[in-house]
Amino acid sequence: MYDVSTRKRALALVAQGRSLNSVSRETGISRAAIRAWLDRLEPLPRMATPDPGPPACERSYAYLLGLYLGDGCISPHPRGSGFYLRIACADAWPGLIRRCREAITLVRPGLGVYALQKEGYVMVTSYSRHWPRLFPQHGPGKKHERGIALDPWQQTIVDAHPWELVRGLVHSDGCRITNWTTRLVGGEWKRYEYPRYFFTNVSDDIRRLYTDTLDGLGVAWTHCTRHGNPYNISVARRASVALMDAHVGPKY
Question: Which residue in 14, 55, 148, 172 has the fewest CB atoms around it within 10 Å?
């Protein structure tokens, strides 16, 4: 059992953005206990204030919107009036985890952001009663089983920062790979390599949002159907890959 002051100290460290592992090491409290306290956490006073208005940083919001549409979800607190925003980020990309946490902090300064370690990935998490208003695509069931469309105010932000949305979508559900092929040149087979971007999402609406944004940016793309499923969008033309490299780049 832990006293109230010990619990408050641990939760304050998590609210600063510290991982559960680091808080556990510093305080000697088990990760399981800290996670249980977070699950029972009632809304903090700052979260019970009136609607704070639009995103504090629209550029970061466009990026966070892409992450949410790809690997994010919003779920209600079981015994509170607020909601958890959760973004799944693979352990293989520590830069993505850091960038995700920074984006949440810039979109909503003052909110706590913490990382829950899972097997092979980190769940970057933040609590607020206002997340469903900021992400009106939230709803019951899986995203690909419901319609996904941007509200006019969201589309205005995406129009102003289209590359940030593309970055968020690629960093969540995309990748940059190196393809190769062989050609017969002068009687000899030679190997050629070329970079390529893939984006994979089951939702027709999210894929359409991605390709519509690429169209506006002058990026050429094609559907890449696999096993009869048109879930993959490919960018392979040299000029378009160069644009993607300049504004998106691989995960890191």
Answer: 148
